[in-house]
Amino acid sequence: MTALQEERTTDDLKALAERAGRELEDASALEILQWAADTFGNRFCVTSSMEDAVVAHLASRALPGVDVVFLDTGYHFPETIGTRDAVEAVMDVNVITLTPRQTVAEQDAEYGPKLHDRDPDLCCALRKVRPLEEGLKGYLAWATGLRRDESETRANTPVVGWDEKRGKVKISPIAKWSQEDVQTYVTEHGVLTNPLLMDGYASVGCAPCTRRVLEGEDARAGRWAGRSKTECGLHG
């Protein structure tokens, strides 16, 4: 165990994240994840929506058996759950499934049915944000699959940054990648992807709030279509 895997102050971690963001800007995705593995060891995890398993695959090369955290909101497409199960079966990772405090039925009983239609921010908070905050408590750093080309809101994503809300180092190793880069990696390494990506979906979230994208739309246009909402709250 390195010193950085032990408890560090928030200021130490923030300074580390900001320095690494500058120093690793031109590093490859695998180099960024190798830095994370060497720095944080088992206090580092990957989060995955199971849209694809690219970051999980990359992380498993840097840290075999790495924890891959998946949020089972209760609203996922069957294809997404199937992708999670396949990733767990064939990759050198440890899939950890987080669930909300309430089942969908329990949430419906307390808040009324289809909360996602009436108050999607609250629904995301209950079924995504809060479970993730609980699930990340044992880690000092987490990795995401955020890319700068996905939307305007993600255009300035650092490869390593500071998650102020959670007090953790946030790593986005493929931030600089394009969709073509993702596809090239998938093809070269035979990485699992969600079947919905071959059926008109460019970004896969909960079934009630996700639609296929139209020609010319950005990858996030199919999420919460018709609303100003573009993020679930996990990333801002």
Average pLDDT, to the nearest integer?
Answer: 91
CA(first)-CA(last) distance: 31 Å
- Summarize the main sheet: 6 strands, mixed
Q: What structural class do you assign from the helix and strand content?
A: alpha/beta
Proportion in helices: 25-40%
What percentage of the residues does DSSP assign to strands (E)?
5-15%
Q: Could you tell me the number of beta strands?
A: 6
Radius of gyration: 17 Å
Strand order of the largest sheet: 3-2-1-4-6-5
Output the number of helix runs: 8
Written as H for each helix and E for each strand, in order along the chain, the element string is HHEHEHEHHHEEEH
Uncertain segments: none
- Gross morphology: globular
Descriptive overview:
With 236 residues, this protein is α/β, with parallel strands linked by helices. Helix content is 37%, strand content 11%. The protein is built from eight helices and six strands. The chain has helices at 10-23, 29-40, 54-62, 78-90, 104-111, 115-118, 120-135, 179-189, and strands spanning 44-47, 66-71, 93-98, 141-143, 160-163, 168-171. Strands 3-2-1-4-6-5 form a six-stranded mixed sheet, sandwiched between helices. α2 (29-40) packs across α3. The longest helix is centred in the middle third of the chain and has 16 residues, at 120-135. Keywords: Cytoplasm, Iron, Iron-sulfur, Metal-binding, Oxidoreductase. Belongs to the PAPS reductase family. CysH subfamily.
